[in-house]
Amino acid sequence: QVQLVESGGGLVQPGGSLRLSCAASGSISIIYDMGWYRQAPGKQRELVARITAGGSTNYVDFVKGRFTISRNNANNTMILQMNSLKPEDTAVYYCNAQIRAAWAQTRGYWGKGTLVTVSS
Q: What is the pLDDT of residues 46-90, one digit of tens each?
């Protein structure tokens, strides 16, 4: 069984920083693309950033220059470094990964999310 667990959320003042982590565990053969999504209250879940297994990244416009996505393939982790946070960044942040588990087909997995609140 494959599991994604996020950590690192919390309350931060505008202009502050947070570092989110996502750890994948279980019977994993290969992790392909990974990404961070977020869902603000009353809104749909949206993409924040994605990273391929080779390290290529892409960001949505509203986080470019402020957020950095990275991953460590050796220990199946992904990081989202968030700087210059704004109140509009307040949301539950979710980890997503395309994973081929042992004796299973490749499919997408989601973590349960971690809450980020940006407020003074």
A: 999 999 999 999 999 999 999 999 999 999 999 999 999 999 999
Comparing C-alpha atoms, which of 36, 41, 3, 31 is closest to residue 18?
A: 36
Q: What is the pLDDT of residue 3?
A: 96
Write down the pLDDT at residue 106.
Answer: 94
Q: How far is CA 42 from CA 15, 31, 59, 83, 92, in A?
A: 24, 31, 22, 24, 12
**Beta-strand (E) ranges in 2-119?**
3-7, 10-12, 18-25, 28-39, 46-51, 57-59, 67-72, 77-82, 91-101, 106-110, 114-118
Rounded CA gap, 30 and 2, in Å?
A: 11
User: Is the CB of residue 36 less than 8 Å from the CB of residue 46?
Assistant: no
What does the alpha-carbon distance between residue 107 and residue 105 come to, in Å, rounded to a whole number? 6
